[in-house]
Target: Universal stress protein family protein
Amino acid sequence: MSSFDPSESTVGQSLDRGIDLFRRAHVGDAAPVRPTSPRRVLLVLDGSGQDACSAPLAAYLKARFGCDLYVADARESDRSEAKAVEVATQLHAKALPRTEGESYEQILAAVARADCDLAIVPCPFGREPESVGPHSAGLTTDMLLAQSPVPLLVVRWPFPVKPYFEDNPEQGSGEFPAAGGASPFAKLVVMVVGENDAARPAAEWAAGLIAPGGNLNLELLLEEEFYQNVRAALMELDPDGDVSHERLTRALRKEYGNLHAGLAKAAEAGGFGYELQTRREESAPNITAGPGDRLVVLPLERGDHQSEGHVADTLRRTANPLLVVPTAVRR
Model:
């Protein structure tokens, strides 16, 4: 069974797609952006400090969207169902029975049993982030990235979560109190590298999750390695051609022109702020500052090494929660 392995990246694939993007610079799919919100959410527990953040995030989604909520404990070291039952009782959710297998297999089985459209998972699974270093995600996360049929809301460094209350959003209710907590749904950043078939569903999830009055950014990131590969190949084809960062950046903006227009319309209809940004890799913002500062949304095109590598790298170096939206998402 193969795992999510961005190390298999090939320059040839990046060149083919980069040259195609550079030459065509088309405007993409003209379909409107339809905000997506969760209907059935799976909360995965691992006994680590991330549980104290994951549970309030699940409570927020349940309170805001009225979604069905399921709880699964996927630890291999403790087969008891007591923790799942305890948390499910607090959240007015349903605890799922334990299944056999490794943690990632238990999680995938729970996703299928709950028929959920979103799973909240800790990373690294079963360990505190500081125990494995800043550049490790763990086998469980890698396998979920490779196989999960639904988006993953990945919790890295825990933080106090501000609850959502429909009548008094700034007040606490006694359930998972978080006075002075942060709301990662108030600021969302959709980060896209090159062409990506998961960009539209990722944008739709972002438009559905952004808090009213919040701010959503679509960031088109031009990685330096990608640029240098494309530049070298195009210079061989046309030594006198314009192969500047600026031209490839303009091609990216044209590629996502309709997605940009759709998000702008969704922002106007949904009452949230929206901005399109294009950045070179070295000018990308520091997304590790403040774990609850924002939610980073990453489209994952499976089988595309550039997309897989970007997701793996971002996951390992960020403290923010991430929403990973893969291709072949169950809708």
Remarks:
- The CA atoms of residues 135 and 316 lie 5 Å apart.
